[in-house]
Amino acid sequence: MAAGPPPEEIHFSQRPQVEGSIPGQRSRELLEKQSEIEANTVAYPRSLPIAMDAARGATIRDADGNVYLDFFGGIGVANVGHSNPYVLSAAQDQLDSLAHTIDFPTEARIEFLEALDGIAPGSLPGNSRIAFGGPTGTNAIEASIKLARYNTGNEGLIGFDRGYHGGTAGALSLSGWSSYKSDYEPLLSGVVHVPYPTARGQERGPAASLERTLTQLRAVLRDDDTPSPAGIWAEPIQGSGGVIVPPEGFLTGLRAIADDHDLLLIVDEIQTGMGRTGEWFGCTRSGITPDAVTVGKAVGGIGLPLSATIYREEFDTWGPSAHAGTFRGHVPAMIAGARAIEYIDSHGLLDRAQDLGSYLRERLAECANACPSLVDVRGRGLLVGAEFEAADGSPLPSVVEAIQDRCLRRGLVVWTAGIEGHVLRLLPPLVLTDEQARVGMDILTEVIEDVTRASTETPDVAGRRS
């Protein structure tokens, strides 16, 4: 018997229901109150000016009663949909009995540990240990840094250009975005970044791009002036960096180099994990076994805060409180995570993500035929990117901003990616229905055609928000 109601039954509607201007009156009031009290670090309402009231499945209702199709998914948090009733009821039941346990054992915690171990990539199942610490993915990255340094005795860290791993000092140090961290330097020393391979913009193709990356990585490891590295940190697909899908053989090449130099290979699956790419983890299809995998975002089932570091049992050499955190016992998130894994498996959502992702990319590719500034469509599963550039190759963030704005006014929520902000990023919940996918892509492709047509007539296509 399938776990819980089928995906098609858990949404507010199959299409947007928007009336009047966006934002509506109540949303305006709440946005203004928030801006008067909360810090300037608030970011998302600047691009999506609505106040949220409720969400179900792949739909969001704002404070004025408007319903939107959600192709945003909380940046990859809502894989099984917002307020999925099967997952939500388990979390509510757990909350009624026990919410916080630090790291004392509970039935729910053990169930979740076993579920995570069971879906881990490569040969990790039955050969892993799982560490909890803080509630966000960046904490899992911090744990992986400590794990690598502790087991190797080395200081250096190797990351990739355009990579993004989180907002704390260690995670920022690994990230390849200078705009995120330049105001807070110096951060960790001994961090080296190498190019992330991509087929885009490489005249000799993906094989040459991959070889360039691996060659530079080997050169870093031969450099006597570089602190001896403890590990290599890589995303199987760079989500925030622009939905960059590396050439085949990337993770295999990293695994071989890490083995040759006795380094840990840590794969950041915070955005790509828990079924987002059509497999449990983005690195699964490579066939390699990472030394550690970091998870966050969707691991808490329905957006409950939780993160974890899954690593090879042989590296479990540290002792009690080597990595700690007050909320490493968030049991409602753990039972929600276990139920989300069950729901994904029961309803075949991994295959569903692959099929829906192919459909989204196909619709965008068709749109590109009439829109020269849409220069690339890429992704895997329900992590999809569409890149916009001018004829001279310069990025077009204003076009993406205009697309996002006009989609919102028509009831579709989408997001962006890339250092320059010129990549449209789609991360809808895996429970998206066929009808929602069709309606959403009808809206998106029409908006893209309108905006790109306007961009050839005037340089300012973003318009003014009401």
UniProtKB/TrEMBL annotation:
Needs which cofactor? pyridoxal 5'-phosphate
**A GO molecular-function descriptor:** transaminase activity
Sorted alphabetically, which keywords does the UniProt record give?
Answer: Aminotransferase, Pyridoxal phosphate, Transferase
Q: Where is this region: Disordered?
A: 1-24
Superkingdom of origin: Archaea
Any Pfam family from its record, for instance, is Aminotran_3
| SUPFAM superfamilies found in the cross-reference section | PLP-dependent transferases (SSF53383)
User: In its keyword annotation, does this UniProt entry include Transferase?
Assistant: yes
The answer, when asked if Transferase is one of the entry's keywords, is yes
User: What family is it from?
Assistant: Belongs to the class-III pyridoxal-phosphate-dependent aminotransferase family.
**UniProt-recorded name of the protein:** Aspartate aminotransferase family protein
Species in which this protein is naturally found: Halobellus ruber
